[in-house]
């Protein structure tokens, strides 16, 4: 489909100034002398380029992160970021709590409006040729970078708001009111524009950016990877033939914003794009991460055991800076030394430290996430014959062969035992083990114990589980500048394998290629292959579940929920699968962390409710302020 150029004038333009290694420049109105001076030399024009990147999501910021938009994490009420309040149903049209449309403030670093980000991209594209000390090839590369960013910002808006206006160029300052009052385009037109813009950008992007000073800048591998994600979303039930929710959502001409007929070919396009992205990444040296460093002294002797190595492989796949698996990392946030970094609320306090300045200890995985991880046999806990699912909350003594992840001869819930390595790499639990602050801790999480809730403090783990996954193992919490910074993973190779497996299965059903993609994830996870796990009659309850499209779909969805946990994917995945009422309407649960005795601690309690009004909450509201500025906009259904 040929996409029309869309143009807009932004009535006012203000950009958050961010504290980081870059100095982001507030772009002045179009056509002024200052703008011409900005694009006179490369050195000053670079500020415009950096500004375009500054609108990337701030998922490493505790109070601006979309990581907390889902059922994965809980926090004590006094600490609640707006994302938790959104999931509790407190979002309003008059004052949206979060949103890419208008942007939002947050403790530390907020999020700028992506429409302003798009306008900044258009300004650079329209003016970069004025720069006198750049060659045309370099100018074309910068244009390609921000063209990709413009497409990506449209995609984020589409993912959160559904049909949106398409803004390809900026209008002149003297444009009429009617010219600037744009209409929302159909979902298919939006996806087509995003994909075609990425395709056009690819031609002038470098194959792979590898220089230390430029890591995080857009290249062909990144562009193809994000294109694969875009097409995966386009093929998913929320956007593909969604007559169930949006049969009455039409524009002023009576055209449906959402296509009403399912198009299976979209899954094939998504599969082809994922395969192209995987091949491009591997060709440029991207590979699944495996820990190859010398282990710390406290684990040197234990590193002969595969289970220990598997935990290192999975934990450092996120926190090891610029590791082999990272396709795109957001390098603009500087997590090191910033009080608002997401590591701080996840990092546990060391009660023996004279200072715990950067260890807040209040970001806690939910019981549901603890139950989502597989058993050691690579099966869901309710699908493994050898896992005592019906008695999973009962207490058991930790055996000698479980000493690599729990404290031998102590007692903990059966739920915490005989699980896969990713469980232990990602979650801390009572009588478990945590490698943190450069040492190894024996966790005691009951009230009044070493790592349990201290009386009269709101810094505690609401569910009794600690979040290891987002904390670098060597980060120490006595001072903010001791945090080990790492780029936030915008996209990893493991996601591409999951995208490919999902698209292949939806297009053609189970196949050797789909299994192979999943097994790339499972091999690093340290669990049996899909085929071995699900065909094992001694372990699997639903033997050969992987042989049907429906069965493999459930397997892929759970694999994705585990592998991509706490990386700001679940909110989008659950919605695009149209499963939000299943997951986002039930109470958040955890252990009774205010109890001191073993028997009382291991009682399940409800921490709080999650609210999801379907279909209203599948997309966020456009604020009244924005609707008053542009009467041509149509509010999302239900708001």
Automatic annotation (TrEMBL):
The keyword Membrane applies. Keywords: Cell outer membrane, Membrane, Signal. Residues 354-639 form the RagB/SusD domain. SUPFAM superfamilies: TPR-like. Its main location: membrane. Residues 115-232 form the SusD-like N-terminal domain. It comes from the Bacteria. The keyword Membrane applies. One of its GO terms (cellular component) is cell outer membrane. It is found in: Cell outer membrane. Belongs to the SusD family. This is Carbohydrate-binding protein SusD. It comes from Polaribacter vadi.
